[in-house]
Amino acid sequence: MEKWTAESIPDQSGRVAIVTGANSGLGYHTALELARKNATVVMACRNLNKGRGALDDLKQELPDAQVELMKLDLADLRSVHEFADKFRASYDRLDLLINNAGIMAIGRQETADGFEMQFGINHLGHFALTGLVIDMLTSTPNSRVITVSSGAHRGGEINFDDLMHEKDYSRWGAYSQTKLANVLFAFELNRRLRAAGASTISVAAHPGYAATNLQSIDDWAVVKVILKVTNAVMAQSAEKGALPQLYAAAAPDVSGGDFYGPHFMQMRGYPVKEQASEAAYDVAAAEKLWDVSEKLTGVSYKIGAAAVA
Prior knowledge:
- Helix content is 41%, strand content 14%.
- By secondary structure, the protein is an alpha/beta fold.
- It has one domain: NAD(P)-binding Rossmann-like Domain (Rossmann fold), CATH 3.40.50.720.
- The two termini are 32 Å apart.
């Protein structure tokens, strides 16, 4: 098989990218490699101190990189609006929106808007962000939205009767629900873009088992120990885990509605196109999730016609 690496990314000169959660892990390496190929990259981060550290690291490796740090807290819709407003005031195009940030399997908490934290950050925050910049995407020729999911989506189901898990909370069940929501959203967005005749495409990707900060946030001591061991033995690096989303963002043969992950057992290795779970292609569920997400976030999408290259 062809071993596609970050070196295979075509030149990105003139392109503008937003990468959420770019201060560490998959997001950092995604921002780094796009900047290395001359993209202008906006690192959208909740914690500006960590973001500044990541920006300093990136600039140390790439002194001439066109990179900017902006605050984005996906757990607060007010912050999402403020980020979108600031981005719109600074840029006149958006070629790549990489919805990468996320949290995993935490004890139940709520966002500033009262959403279950995992669903609020992993799905609703990104749904709102994408909707607030969708016109910039559709007015930029051949732009792409990349939504990062997980292999855990295969065990997920959308519980429309208890989306916020107020009645019955399972940290892993809630996480898997959000990861399925990510793929449902990515595919439904692509259907809507296609129906509007837009040149923008929406694609999903997952990193397989990659060692990132996601595995360090669990508040159960025993789980932390287990994850530390499995990370050391089984996980691939965050650098390699970022390859599927980089492929989705930059490879010339990508089509809307594609799903990319690592080639070996969907856990490790070089990026390949794969099938998502059967549930991810449930159009009725995707449409229902879309309607609910619009109501919860107050963000309605205005998808225009294709930009002319």
